[in-house]
Amino acid sequence: MPDYLSRSPVEDATEDPDETFFTASQSTQADHELCNRCHHVVSAVQTRFVKLRQTTTDTSINTTNPIEDSLLFQEENRITPFSIEQLRQTQQHDEYTQNIINNIKKYKKYFISNDLLMHRSNPLVPYVPHGELRRTILRIYHDTAANGAHFGRDKTIHKIKQRYFWSSMYKDIDNYIKSCILCAQYNPRRQKTPVSMDFHGPITPVSRRRNKYIISLTDVLSKFVVTKAVRDNSAQTVVRFLKEDIITKFGTPHCILTDNGTHFTSSVTNELL
């Protein structure tokens, strides 16, 4: 071991070939307090080698400041759908908004702050009139990658209601997401597929337990089958099979396909489902 170390000396550790990466916190800001927020830059630690290299190149004319570049990069990637002044002007030209402002005492859920109609939500948020501003908000908070593109309805509602308010917000967001082509193409349908149920028999010879029918329930999508040997094909047998072998183990089916036999359409079966 000593002989190996003498023949293979360790290189000088004063130089570190690691690179330095400057990163800026990249996010989408669309709320009305954007103009009052500060810019924060997150930068990586500089190694001694890179620091020495930067020192030797600082005298060059083409040298750029990495901090300024990070701020510029942050500004270019910040998405601002509209300013507070644009929102204020839109409210001033909207008939419904002006009606609330002129009769503000009748609308206890609203108040005026800095000539801007606000809603008493938690937190307090500005009211957005009907029109292009609402469509812009929907695009920003559902379509852009910086906001976690194409989140579902609940997450999108949560993000928007923390910043804005309008009366039909929930309905508009739901309709917008349902009309999104990418969501329709790539999001799986989160619902139980229908199942089919039927009797098979009578089967001869009868088993030792006097069972002469087989009742089965098949998942239409996966073709998974649950079967049970039974004595008869009555409605009570159907109810017992669903309770003991299906609902307690897999949950209640949303849709059951049958041949409309009397044992499937009886009042006893309908009361269970």
UniProtKB/TrEMBL annotation:
<dbReference type="InterPro" id="IPR001584">
    <property type="entry name" value="Integrase_cat-core"/>
</dbReference>
<dbReference type="InterPro" id="IPR012337">
    <property type="entry name" value="RNaseH-like_sf"/>
</dbReference>
<dbReference type="Pfam" id="PF00665">
    <property type="entry name" value="rve"/>
</dbReference>
<protein>
    <recommendedName>
        <fullName>Integrase catalytic domain-containing protein</fullName>
    </recommendedName>
</protein>
<feature type="domain" description="Integrase catalytic">
    <location>
        <begin position="184"/>
        <end position="273"/>
    </location>
</feature>
<dbReference type="GO" id="GO:0015074">
    <property type="term" value="P:DNA integration"/>
</dbReference>
<dbReference type="GO" id="GO:0003676">
    <property type="term" value="F:nucleic acid binding"/>
</dbReference>
<dbReference type="InterPro" id="IPR036397">
    <property type="entry name" value="RNaseH_sf"/>
</dbReference>
<dbReference type="InterPro" id="IPR041588">
    <property type="entry name" value="Integrase_H2C2"/>
</dbReference>
<dbReference type="InterPro" id="IPR050951">
    <property type="entry name" value="Retrovirus_Pol_polyprotein"/>
</dbReference>
<dbReference type="Pfam" id="PF17921">
    <property type="entry name" value="Integrase_H2C2"/>
</dbReference>
